[in-house]
Design a protein that fits this description.
The complex is a heterodimer of chains A (453) and B (307). Chain A is an alpha+beta fold and 453 residues long. In chain A, 42% of the residues lie in helices and 17% in strands. Chain A has a single domain, classed as Cytochrome-c3 Hydrogenase, chain B, CATH 1.10.645.10. In chain A, β4 and β5 form a beta hairpin. Chain A is globular. Chain B has 2 domains: 2-185, Rossmann fold, CATH 3.40.50; 196-305, Cytochrome-c3 Hydrogenase, Chain A, domain 2. Chain B is 24% helix and 9% strand. The chains are: A alpha+beta (453), B alpha/beta (307). The complex binds iron/sulfur cluster (2 copies). One iron/sulfur cluster binds at residues 189, 226, 228, 230, 240-242, 248-252 of chain B.
Chain lengths: 453, 307
């Protein structure tokens, strides 16, 4: 007889519920339930277009900046769709990249130390340094993740929830001295990353192509956790579909693409959102039988895809990660590693961006046409901490007629469709241990507030 | 040890994220002094129900109940285990020494309360401007305070931690008409803004992207009409929106989610519809007129070109 069990999953962004169906000691079916709903897409309706810059960041307290950038991109594309040029200086583009990148680093550090590692303490009490609140490593993670977002404050005034990016550029005009402060923060966080997280020099780290090489050379927390995970039998668990989606290029280390066996270009017209199992249907709430979560089910050519740092590594054809997906039958470990790996890649990139800013360029070039004259629809894309973020705006008479947001977490943790479970649901089928199932779900970096918005 | 329990209703978690940025005290310093019973994002164990039962059985004394996020009774829209957020608040409201609402959602309902399909969304003691929240208008906790409201979308961590520390050390705090701590919310973002010189001489920024110019007259800045010490206690201890060049959007006020055109100053015949707090329209017009006729060399140039 199948036994049904419901569990709340805490220590994620917002809470989700897991409904597990057990049979013969294994998970036979799994439902990931996002029970909270605020209706942001509806709150946005009829608002002036630029107000979306203020409203969408408030979808999420940990990745709100990504929503700001996606909205900015959508509104700039709306100009283009209407046949108007929109000029953005390289300086403004670099500053946007910098602030978005800082938010991602903040997210990855907090996720690894505050959300993921505490699970390992349940197996190994020797990891005292990592204990929440008391542990030195936990404290450092809070300290450095807060330090990196100071750079967002330099350019955007504050983190979370600035709206300093706008069609045509950014609102700030930094001085050279402010750039220097930002650079010193990057250097400081990079030093922490080298000393604590990877436990080795960053250039040596980037040259690593194989698991064994890393385990041999590294002295960092990442290595410790990977070894723990291997010891606990995580090598074989956590695989979803082996299908990966990335929607944006971020020079130099993220390239857009859709990989299943081979890689193709991403084409937004192949994305659809299925509502069969979602409480949200045609813009109305509906609680009929079978529906179980506020999340929808995004599909690409009808199939579920995993998005996020691991997808970015695969789509970037990163040698180390291609090897890791061969080493590990399950993707729990590569998924965690990819997030932590990205911290290093981004830190190095931010420093380059900062040094490349030409302060003589304008921060903002006022669009020639008032946004109130725009009509029609446009997309905005962004690679956020948890993966690919898609915004779609439909404008009418200078206002938002409709706004659609497809978050990374809804790709990974959304509902099922008739043919497929969501990637995270799929990843825990067959497991016999509920704590491990929770850990696999956390490896997708759960954010329930984004999943439903 | 005093105890603290953190609940979340309908929220973006931005207040928790903001709190993680706290300095002096850092979050781990606070929770070395105060026993954190449960926080949904930080706790290692998932034992909220057990803790609540122990509080109800008086096995644990609850000092600080912190609520982040808007309140609804409707479990279809917000559920914590088998309960709604309003169930949990109702269970604990008479047990807590203090209740602190953090962020505009918990205080006023904020953006979630604008969503038309779920009409019962509100704050703990207010819904927007009115005292029509979940708890009655005359509600007081054991300590004699009403719900103490820290507004902001999100809160600045120091607004919360400084108030928490004051209560921890049994000091008295005074509240304003929205039950916000006076010593925090008696300031305006305008106080201490680096653009004050431009405001004084009515030198208005015409467009974004400049460190010079005041954002009040054209670009919608709410700094002179909003209660918040954003240019006194800097954000991330670094800067503020208005210093960076973004207009204040008045995120600490009850009407934040219903105001529109954030980057545009509403005017009637050239006079801003809302003028700085404390002055009459007449006084504002007179003083701006005078300031405009007198030229200040400094504010008419890029800063690099000033003497
Ligand atoms: S920008 Fe806003 S806060 Fe700053 S001086 Fe002008 S009105 Fe005041
Ligand atoms: S400057 Fe205004 S909008 Fe920004 S945080 Fe302060 S009160 Fe809120």
């Amino acid at each position: 007889m199948a036994k049904v069990e419901k569990r709340i999953l805490n220590r994620v962004e917002g809470e989700v519920e897991l409904k597990l169906v057990w049979e013969k000691g294994r998970i036979k079916d799994a439902f990931i339930i996002a029970p909270n709903f605020r209706g942001f897409e509806f709150i946005l309706e009829n608002k002036p277009l630029l107000d979306a810059l203020v409203i969408t960041p408030r979808v999420c307290g940990i990745c709100g900046h990504a929503h700001l950038i996606a909205t900015t991109n959508a509104l700039e594309n709306l100009y283009r769709e209407n046949g108007y040029e929109i000029e953005v200086s390289q300086k403004a583009q670099l500053i946007r990249n910098i602030t978005l990148s800082c938010e991602i680093i903040q997210n990855h550090i907090r996720w690894f130390y505050l959300f993921v590692i505490p699970d390992f303490l349940k197996f190994n009490t020797d990891l005292k340094d990592f204990y929440p609140i008391k542990g030195e490593k936990w404290r450092k993670a809070v300290y450095y993740s807060s330090k990196i977002v100071k750079i967002i404050a330099i350019f955007g005034g504050q983190w979370p929830h600035t709206s300093y990016s706008i069609p045509g550029g950014v609102m700030c005009e930094p001085t050279q001295m402010e750039l220097m402060e930002a650079i010193s923060i990057v250097d400081n966080v990079l030093e922490y990353f080298e000393n604590d997280v990877i436990g080795m020099n960053i250039d040596d780290y980037f040259s690593i192509k194989f698991l064994e090489e890393f385990l041999e050379k590294s002295k960092g927390d990442l290595k410790k956790i990977i070894e723990e995970a291997i010891k606990l039998g995580f090598s074989d668990i956590g695989k979803a579909y082996d299908r990966f989606l990335t929607v944006c290029n971020v020079s130099p280390f993220i390239s857009q693409g859709v990989t299943r066996r081979k890689k193709c270009n991403f084409d937004v017209s192949k994305v659809e959102e299925i509502e069969t199992f979602s409480f949200l249907e045609n813009g109305k709430s509906k609680f009929s039988k079978g529906k179980y979560s506020w999340a929808k089910a995004p599909r690409y050519e009808g199939k579920p895809f995993e998005t996020g740092p691991l997808a970015r590594r695969i789509n970037n054809e990163d040698e180390l990660f291609i090897n890791l997906t061969k080493n590990f039958k399950g993707y729990y470990i590569p998924r965690i590693w990819a997030r932590v790996d990205e911290i290093g890649k981004i830190l190095v990139a931010i420093k380059k961006y900062l040094l490349n800013i030409n302060l003589n360029e304008p921060s903002y070039i006022k669009p020639k046409v008032d946004i109130k004259n725009l009509e029609g629809q446009a997309y905005g894309f962004c690679e956020a901490a948890r993966g690919s973020l898609i915004h779609k705006v439909i404008a009418k008479e200078g206002k938002i007629e409709k706004y659609d947001i497809i978050t990374p977490t809804v790709w990974n943790l959304g509902t099922r469709c008739k043919n497929y479970l969501s990637p995270a649901e799929k990843a825990i089928i067959g497991l016999s241990d509920k704590l491990k199932a929770e850990m696999v779900v956390r490896s997708f970096d759960v954010c329930s507030v984004c999943t439903t918005h | 040890m005093k105890t603290l329990l953190w609940l979340q209703g309908l929220t973006c978690n931005g207040n928790t994220q903001s709190l993680l940025n706290a300095e002096n005290p850092y979050i781990y310093e606070i929770f070395s002094k105060i026993n954190l019973l449960y926080h949904p994002s930080l706790s290692i164990e998932n034992n909220l129900n057990e803790i609540i039962d122990k509080i109800l059985d008086k096995e644990i004394k609850l000092d600080f109940l912190i609520v982040e996020g808007a309140i609804t009774k409707n479990k279809n829209f917000c559920k914590i285990g088998n309960y709604s957020i309003s169930d949990l608040v109702n269970k604990l409201k008479d047990k807590a020494e203090y209740i602190i609402a953090v962020g505009n959602c918990a205080v006023h309902g904020n953006l979630p309360a604008v969503y038309r399909e779920n009409k019962d969304i509100c704050g703990l003691q207010f819904k927007f401007e009115e005292k029509k929240g979940l708890l009655p208008s005359d509600f007081k906790t054991k300590s004699g305070y009403p719900v103490i409201n820290i507004t902001g979308c999100p809160i600045h961590p120091a607004w919360f931690t400084q108030v928490l520390m004051a209560l921890y050390y049994d000091r008295k705090i005074s509240l304003d008409k929205f039950n916000r701590p006076k010593e925090i919310f008696m300031y305006l973002p305008h106080d201490g803004c680096t653009r004050n010189e431009y405001f004084e001489w009515k030198t208005e920024a015409e467009e974004f992207g400049h460190k010079e110019g005041c954002l009040f007259y054209n670009l919608g800045c709410r700094g002179p009409m909003t209660h918040a010490p954003c240019n006194k206690i800097l954000w991330n201890r670094i800067s503020s929106k208005t210093r960076a060049g973004m207009p204040c959007i008045g995120c600490t006020e009850f009407n934040f989610p219903v105001r529109e055109n954030f980057f545009d100053t509403k005017k009637n015949m050239g006079i801003p519809e809302d003028i700085p707090l404390g002055v009459s329209k007449r006084a504002y017009i007179m003083i701006s007129g005078v300031a405009k006729t007198l030229k200040n060399e400094r504010v008419s140039k890029k800063l690099e070109d000033t003497e």
